[in-house]
């Protein structure tokens, strides 16, 4: 290599390298990337402390630059429903079963659900270190529960033709209250399902919450021919 260097550059002296040398060695870099892969929501300060404990002392700015050089940037994590493996499998099966459905089918669906509206604003901001295209990887998201305190609950529905009635839920909703909401919203509301679909055939979509699938609720749907 010395002879090759002399032939190419006319000297055996080490030439100056372009750019500043890296402050993080190969071993520390591997440790950093492995740590971020396993715990993507670590803060720069936490990463700095972890590296220092393993013998590498660098600034938070150097950590950011090293991560950026490896295609890893800081993003606000996406919030996703807290799903069990059973829920994930069920949703995947639903998607596969309906994969070939055309636009006309989806235009005939009335989607419905309850949702929680927080009364006290957003939670403290958090960030996640990740690469492009991995926003919905489980480690890069913040799981959220469907219902909780400090909020109001509403039930609503929508179609490709427009939105249905929005119903405020007073107290804890059980099967009886759910059927009352369906009666008011789908049958007697100013924006009832009949008006939304204009007498066209339609399909009511709900999840498998116990009050949605109770025997009395099923009987109600059969009686109303929904």
Automatic annotation (TrEMBL):
GO-annotated biological processes: DNA integration; DNA transposition
Domain of life from the UniProt record: Eukaryota
Domain (Transposase Tc1-like) ranges: 29-99
InterPro entries referenced in this protein's UniProt entry, alphabetically: RNaseH_sf, Transposase_5, Transposase_Tc1-like
GO molecular-function term, one example from the UniProt record: DNA binding
Name of the protein in question: Transposase
Species for this entry: Hirondellea gigas
Organismal lineage: Eukaryota, Metazoa, Ecdysozoa, Arthropoda, Crustacea
């Amino acid at each position: 290599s010395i002879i090759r260097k002399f032939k190419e550059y006319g000297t055996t002296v080490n030439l100056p390298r372009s750019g500043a040398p890296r402050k993080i060695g190969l071993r520390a870099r591997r440790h950093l990337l492995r740590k971020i892969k396993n715990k993507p929501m670590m803060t720069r300060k936490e990463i700095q402390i972890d590296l220092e404990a393993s013998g590498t002392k660098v600034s938070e700015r150097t950590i950011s630059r090293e991560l950026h050089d490896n295609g890893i940037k800081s993003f606000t994590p996406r919030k996703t429903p807290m799903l069990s493996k059973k829920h994930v499998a069920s949703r995947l099966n639903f998607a596969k079963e309906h994969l070939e459905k055309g636009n006309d089918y989806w235009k005939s669906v009335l989607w419905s659900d309850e949702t929680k509206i927080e009364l006290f604003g957003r939670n403290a901001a958090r960030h996640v270190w990740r690469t492009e295209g991995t926003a919905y990887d489980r480690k890069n998201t913040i799981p959220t529960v469907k219902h909780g305190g400090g909020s109001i609950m509403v039930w609503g529905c929508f179609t490709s033709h427009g939105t249905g009635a929005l119903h405020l839920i007073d107290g804890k909703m059980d099967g009886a209250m759910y059927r009352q909401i369906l009666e008011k919203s789908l049958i007697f509301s100013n924006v009832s399902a009949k008006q939304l679909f204009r007498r066209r055939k339609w399909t009511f979509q709900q999840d498998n919450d116990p009050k949605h699938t109770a025997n009395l609720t099923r009987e109600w749907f059969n009686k109303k021919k929904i």
